[in-house]
Amino acid sequence: MRGKTKIATKLAFGLAFATAMIVPVTTLGGSPAVAQNGSGFDAYMAQLGRQAIAQGVTRQTVDAVIPTLTFNQRVVDLDRAQPGGNPAGPTSAIPAFAPYRAKHVDAARIARGRVKYQALRGLLARVERETGVPESIMVSIWGNETNYGSYTGDFDLPRSLASLAYDGRRRDLFAQEFIDSLKIIDRGISRDTIKGSWAGATGLPQFLPSMYLKVARDGDGDGRIDIWNSEADALASIANYFVQAGWRPNQPWGVAVNVPASLNRAALVNRTVSPRCPRVHDRHTRWLTVGEWRSLGVTPTGRTLPDSTLASLLEPDGPGATAYLLTGNYRVILDYNCSNFYALSVALLSDAVAGG
């Protein structure tokens, strides 16, 4: 979603669909939450309108949108219902990955992905040549985010973002995303087009407005960037997202491995604290070369990686189950959505789609 700190992740590089997202409950920027009865909403919208104009949004767009907005309590309730933060203690159970995998890397999603993959090979191959991002990774993100466009959300984006900003717990984030949604409308994209999830994700790749402005690309050469209706634009934008996040061409995301029962896991604990979503990264071991992992008895079950490749070990279902050696490119998938379950599902669906 996918224990995640999704909003923080998407603030850096984008946002995935809200049906599986988990967001933190802490307030960014120290802005206190306000009473949730709608009082003061109009005055706050007027303030946001002035800020939008100061950032270059036209008065025409501000005057067309601001007066129509009303507070959406349902959006705030959905946001507050999301779990977040760290577990209550070090013994808090982490769910098994296998049920999540069965739901997100299922036969129907694989089959549909293979159809899309084959139908769009010309476009996908061109984008891969230009970016180094594998064709199947683009398709897999699309499949995980919106099931290849079958659900993209029907919430009015400016209203949702305005309501979340007014709620105040992540005011700085959502206020800017609201203003960025106005910037998109200013570019000639209609308000009806940019509908999305209650959390502000929009389009086939489920980007926050700020990510559309930052990484969205014209993939079909028609002079417009339409991630809502153009599969070419959506896939090219996903690839550019990965480029901006540091994807390394010609490096697999990782491999499935067998781990011997005798492995001394305590000696492999990662001592580095991640600056974001630390609980996600804490499940990874420290980095070793693939050759060093082999010397410890950790062996691939299928394809292999060069012995010089740096990789960390993740055992999502605990000792005795399938584990994975993960390269730096796996961390790039985490940038899209900081959840090991999500990133593994993207990686495994990618392999399944390409292998069809």
Fold blueprint:
Layout: H1 6-13, H2 41-54, H3 59-65, H4 73-80, H5 97-104, H6 107-119, H7 121-131, H8 135-146, H9 157-167, H10 171-186, H11 209-215, H12 231-245, E1 254-258, H13 278-281, E2 288-289, H14 290-295, E3 299-300, E4 310-314, E5 323-326, H15 328-336, H16 340-354
Antiparallel strand pairs: 1-3, 1-5, 2-4, 4-5
For this entry, give a set of tags.
mainly alpha, disordered N terminus, five-stranded antiparallel sheet, 46% helix, single chain, Helicase, Ruva Protein, domain 3, 356 residues, 16 helices
* Number of DSSP E strands: 5
Can you name the CATH architecture of the domain at 6-82 and 152-245?
A: Orthogonal Bundle
C-alpha Rg, in Å?
A: 21 Å
Please mark out the parts with pLDDT under 50 across 5 or more consecutive residues, or reply none.
1-36, 84-91
Average pLDDT taken over every residue: 88
Distance between the termini: 26 Å
Would you state the CATH class of the domain at 6-82 and 152-245?
Mainly Alpha
Task: Determine the CATH topology of the domain at 6-82 and 152-245.
Answer: Helicase, Ruva Protein, domain 3
Strand content: 5-15%
In sequence order, what are the helices and strands, one letter per element?
HHHHHHHHHHHHEHEHEEEHH
Strand order of the largest sheet: 2-4-5-1-3
Helix coverage percent: 40-55%
The largest β sheet comes out as: 5 strands, antiparallel
Output the structural class: mainly alpha
Instruction: Characterize the overall form.
Output: globular
CATH superfamily of the domain at 6-82 and 152-245: Bacterial muramidase
Count of helical regions: 16
Pfam family, one: SLT_2
Protein name: Lytic murein transglycosylase
GO biological process, one term: peptidoglycan catabolic process
Organism: Sphingomonas paeninsulae
